């Protein structure tokens, strides 16, 4: 409920009776290949989490690390030594930022 826009005296336009029996562990698209050979997997965010989570898996299938970023951001790709993140502000404007990787 907290993630829906606030509208005075109105409930969000959503059918709360249609929730699935289970939640998939990954979002779509879930897999992003990093330039260092690792795979970054976007996890499904639950209502109790205030961050977005990504698992970083190496070539042997082992969990290398977990990345957490604000829910208004998402990883969109990788370059040489960089990860690209899109952030969306309160007005819906999106900006691409580059961060060092790894």
Explain what this protein looks like in three dimensions.
The structure is a single chain. With 102 residues, the protein is mainly β. It has one domain (26-100). 0% of the residues lie in helices and 46% in strands. The strands form two sheets. A four-stranded antiparallel beta sheet has the order 1-2-3-4, with no helix packed on it. The protein has a three-stranded antiparallel beta sheet with strand order 5-6-7, with no helix packed on it. The chain starts with 25 loop residues before the first strand and ends with a strand.
Q: How is the secondary structure organized here?
A:
Elements: E1 26-33, E2 39-43, E3 52-57, E4 63-69, E5 73-79, E6 82-88, E7 94-100
SSE run: EEEEEEE
Total helices: the number is: 0
Number of strands: 7
In the sheet with the most strands, the strands line up as 1-2-3-4
Structural class: mainly beta
Please give the alpha-carbon distance between the first and last residues.
35 Å
Low-confidence parts, pLDDT < 50 over ≥5 residues? none
How large is the share of residues in beta strands?
over 45%
Summarize the main sheet. Answer: 4 strands, antiparallel
């Amino acid at each position: 409920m907290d993630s829906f826009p606030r509208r005075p005296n109105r409930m969000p336009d959503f059918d709360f009776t249609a929730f699935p029996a289970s939640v998939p562990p990954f979002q779509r698209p879930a897999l992003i290949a990093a330039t260092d050979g690792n795979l970054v997997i976007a996890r499904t965010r639950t209502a109790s989490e205030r961050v977005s989570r990504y698992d970083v898996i190496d070539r042997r299938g082992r969990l290398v690390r977990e990345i957490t970023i604000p829910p208004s951001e998402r990883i969109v790709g990788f370059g040489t030594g960089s990860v690209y993140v899109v952030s969306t502000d309160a007005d819906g404007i999106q900006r691409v930022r580059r961060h060092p990787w790894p």
